[in-house]
């Protein structure tokens, strides 16, 4: 029998983007698998272990997310 990693809502910040791994059925709505803000999903999705952190971004694109554009250079000088 494998180990199960138990997730709960407190492990995620309210504005964090998380991944819903499987469909989640509630009396009022069907949540399809995909990316959601943690505060948009119902508690049952966390209790059932359907929510996971997004994997980290790989490559150089993650390093350049907060880099501002360099100032324009004047080539006439």
For this entry, give a set of tags.
77 residues; mainly beta; 3-stranded antiparallel beta sheet; two-stranded antiparallel ribbon; 6% helix; 19% strand; globular
Word description of this protein:
The chain is mainly beta and 77 residues long. It has a domain of 48 residues. The strands form two sheets. A three-stranded antiparallel sheet has the order 4-1-5, with no helix packed on it. The chain has a two-stranded antiparallel sheet with strand order 2-3. A hairpin with a 4-residue loop joins strand 2 and strand 3. The chain is globular, with a radius of gyration of 19 Å.
Task: Please write out the topology.
Blueprint: E1 17-20, E2 24-25, E3 30-31, E4 34-37, H1 43-47, E5 51-53
Mean pLDDT: 79
- Helix-strand pattern: EEEEHE
Total helical segments: 1
Strand order of the largest sheet: 4-1-5
Strand content: 15-25%
Q: Mind summarizing the main beta sheet?
A: 3 strands, antiparallel
Over the alpha carbons, how many angstroms does the gyration radius reach? 19 Å
**Class per helix and strand makeup:** mainly beta
Count all strands and give the number. Answer: 5
- Share of residues in helices: under 10%
Distance between the termini: 71 Å
Shape estimate = globular
Task: List low-pLDDT spans.
Answer: 62-69
Describe what is shown at a glance.
The chain is mainly β. The protein has one helix at residues 43-47; strands at 17-20, 24-25, 30-31, 34-37, 51-53. Strands 4-1-5 form a three-stranded antiparallel beta sheet, with no helix packed on it. It has a two-stranded antiparallel sheet with strand order 2-3.
């Amino acid at each position: 029998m494998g180990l199960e990693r138990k997730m709960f809502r407190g492990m995620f910040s309210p504005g964090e983007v998380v991944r819903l791994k499987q469909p989640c059925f509630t009396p009022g709505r069907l949540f399809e698998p995909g990316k959601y803000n943690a505060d948009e999903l119902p508690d049952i999705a966390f209790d059932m272990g359907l929510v996971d952190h997004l994997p980290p971004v790989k490559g150089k694109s993650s390093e350049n997310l907060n880099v501002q554009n360099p100032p324009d250079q004047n080539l006439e000088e």
